[in-house]
Amino acid sequence: MSHNLFETFAAKMRECAEADFITTRDGRRYRYADALTISAQLAGALTELGVKQGDRVAVQVDKSPEAILLYLACLRIGGVYLPLNTGYTGDEIRYFLNDAEPALFVCRPKLLDEAQALAAETGCPAVATLGSAADGSLMETAQAATPREDIVALGERDLAAILYTSGTTGRSKGAMLTHKTSPLTPKPWPKRGTSALMIG
Questions:
Q1: What are the Cα distances from residue 101, in Å, to 18, 123, 172, 197?
Q2: What is the DSSP letter of 197?
Q3: What is the per-residue pLDDT for 111?
Q4: In which element (H, E) is residue 116 found?
Q5: What residues does 83 pair with on adjacent strands?
Q6: Region Disordered: start and end of each range (predicted)?
């Protein structure tokens, strides 16, 4: 039996396929069916960029529907989502990349040059960009890649995400969240399409 958290997401999303999953203040609407489709496309992009089961994906981007869908894509293929605050400095990002050893660093488009330099310095093999308007190289790769409709089978102790602490008493430490313990689960699920996330 697989304990991949995305299995739970996918089952509920199919039940609520036509309900709104995310709406933005500028009027963009994403149904649960869209979330399934786009997360599969993003999973295909991650695969194209070399991400495999168990690999970390460091993400320092602005809030957007695609940032949430990237988390779902990581779960889908057994990747480990590593969100990084957009306020972190270059030195802090260098520390996180060295410590977590991600296979991919996803950054804001305007910071691509800095991200590539940090990736080269820390041995991170790939960098992609993701903007708040569904732009960036990651979305371009997703549109061209073969979607990953499969859901990788995982154990309950496999990692889903790593969240770094604030580091108030020293260096930040990564809290490891498994597919059993991850709190990154949207609740409650909508009844008859009445609930949606609002971003913007």
A1: 38, 8, 15, 31
A2: E
A3: 97
A4: helix 112-122
A5: 59
A6: 173-200
Phi and psi at residue 172, to the nearest 5°: -60, 145
- Judge whether residue 105 has pLDDT over 90: yes
Q: Which residues 6+ apart lie within 8 Å of 80 measured at CB?
A: 54, 55, 56, 57, 74, 159, 160, 161, 162
Those residues whose C-beta lies under 8 Å from the C-beta of residue 50, and which sit 6 or more positions away, are 103, 104, 125, 126
Q: Which pTM was predicted?
A: 0.90
Please give the CATH number for the structural domain made up of 5-199: 3.40.50.12780
In this predicted model, which residue has the larger pLDDT, 2 or 118?
118
- Among 59-63, 77-81, 106-110, 190-194, where is mean pLDDT lowest? 190-194
Q: Is pLDDT of 60 > 90? A: yes
Within the chain, strands assigned E span 20-24, 29-31, 56-60, 80-83, 104-107, 127-129, 159-164, 174-178, 197-199
